[in-house]
Amino acid sequence: MAQLNKDLYEKIARYFDKSREAIAGADIYILEAVEAIVDITTSNYVPGDGSGSPDATEAVNVEVALLNLVNASYSSVKALVGSTTPYLEGVRAVNNYVINNATTTGTSVEKLTAYVNSINWKYTSLDDPSGSAEGTNVVPPYWIILCTAAGYDTSSWRTVEE
């Protein structure tokens, strides 16, 4: 089989990196929803028909009806945000393809490292993921995290810290 086009590899890595960036703070918003439910005040709730005075029982009923379910959503989203697991199968597929179709000799680590470091990455820094600023091209940081989590040695890849 033909080797994976380097531009395609770079696009895949950048999309995985952007995906992580997109969900990075999602749990915070759900937590704010939980806190809003906890902060329900009696003054906003009157009996079911809308007549009468504010009622603490109605406020508690709303809080009880929503709190456990919304908190469960928060827990699920927090687990997703903190996990690399959903990404690993795709990361392995891409990197194993590169290793299995390498034309160079050496270990799997050497083949993948040579391939990754031969790419003219457009990602230049955490502050400039589009690659429009001048600077040394580097592998997107979350792609490195994902590749490491998937079991690849990324210690010789170009990083933002270099």
Top keywords for this entry?
162 residues, 2 domains, mainly alpha
Structure description:
The protein is mainly α and 162 residues long. The protein has two domains: 6-23 and 84-149, no CATH class; 26-81. It is built from six helices and no strands. Helix 4 (85-100) packs across helix 5 and helix 4 (85-100) packs across helix 6. The protein is rod-shaped, with a radius of gyration of 24 Å.
| Total E-strand runs | 0
Kindly report how far apart the N and C termini lie. 34 Å
- Helical percentage: 55-70%
Rg over CA atoms = 24 Å
**What's the order of the H and E elements?**
HHHHHH
Count of helical regions: 6
Categorize the overall geometry: rod-shaped
Q: What structural class should be given to the helix and strand makeup?
A: mainly alpha
Strand-residue proportion: under 5%
Main sheet properties: none
Low-confidence parts: none
How many domains?
A: 2
- What's the average pLDDT? 83
Compose a concise summary of this entry:
It is built from six helices and no strands.
Topology:
Elements: H1 6-23, H2 26-38, H3 56-81, H4 85-100, H5 108-117, H6 141-149
